[in-house]
Amino acid sequence: MIERPEYLNQLIQFKDKDLIKIVTGIRRCGKSTLYELYIEYLKSNGISNEQIIYLNLEDYTFDTIKDYKDLYEYIDSKLIKEKQNYVFIDEVQKVIDFQKACDSLYIKKNVDLYITGSNSKLLSGELATLLSGRYVEIKMLPLSFKEYISYVGENDIQKKYVDYITKGSFPYTLMLKDTTDIKMYLDGLYNTVIVNDIADRKDIADIGMLKDIIKFMFDNIGNICSSTSIANTMTSSGRKISVPTVEKYLEALVESYVLYKVPRYDIKGKNYLISGAKYYVSDVGLRYYLLGRKIGDDGSILENIVYLELLRRGYEVYIGKQDMNEVDFVAINEKGVEYYQVSYTVKDEKTLERELNSLENINDHNPKYLLTTDYAPYTSYNGIKQINVFDWLLNK
Question: Where does 151-306 show beta strands of DSSP type E?
Answer without folding.
Answer: 259-266, 271-281
